[in-house]
Amino acid sequence: MFCPDNAQQDPRQDQYVIYRQRLKEYQHTLKTYTELSERKEYYFQKTQPSSICTTKIIKGSAAAYNSLDEYVQKAEQLDKRLQIAKRLVTDRVWILKATEQELRKSKSLYDIIYVYRYLENRDVGWIAKMIGYSEAHIYKILRNIAM
Q1: Nearest-angstrom CA–CA distance, 147 and 125
Q2: pTM for the model
Q3: Helices (H) and strands (E) in the chain, counts
Q4: How far apart are CA 123 and CA 136, in angstroms?
Q5: Which sequence spans correspond to the domains of the chain?
């Protein structure tokens, strides 16, 4: 197999950048969804019975604090945001998988090396054995991919 010593710029460089951006967007959206779920769980936990605190002295109005009302109000707001976040996560997963599948189907040497190294987390030595290139050539190609 032929690989020039002066490894050329990868023509699909933008594809790798797009994949990384989509992965970051997915991770950010998943983090947002998880935070919203945890917040909703926190408000639910506040509605559960707990031990009575006898050190608190009620001052001011005699209106009782109802944690269930607060939970219902906050849950309605969070449910809307959770639905939106869940749809975003689902969409981003689909887009990410489509991009990954496109990279995996490609016959380009750069794509094959990118998939092995960054998607499957393979060692450079393993990639060199599988493809039939020297490790130095694999590192040159990875350097071009990472630019």
Answers
A1: 21
A2: 0.69
A3: 5, 0
A4: 13
A5: 11-46+68-105, 107-147
Look at the block and give the residue holding tokens 């947002």.
Answer: 32
CB 109 within 8 A of CB 141: yes
Instruction: Per residue of the chain (147 residues), give pLDDT as tens.
Output: 444 444 455 456 688 888 999 999 999 999 999 999 998 888 888 777 765 555 665 555 545 556 677 778 888 888 999 999 999 999 999 999 999 999 899 898 999 999 999 999 999 999 999 999 999 999 999 998 875
Give me 118's structure tokens: 């960054």
Distances (CA, A) of 41 to 29, 46, 72, 74, 129: 18, 9, 12, 11, 50
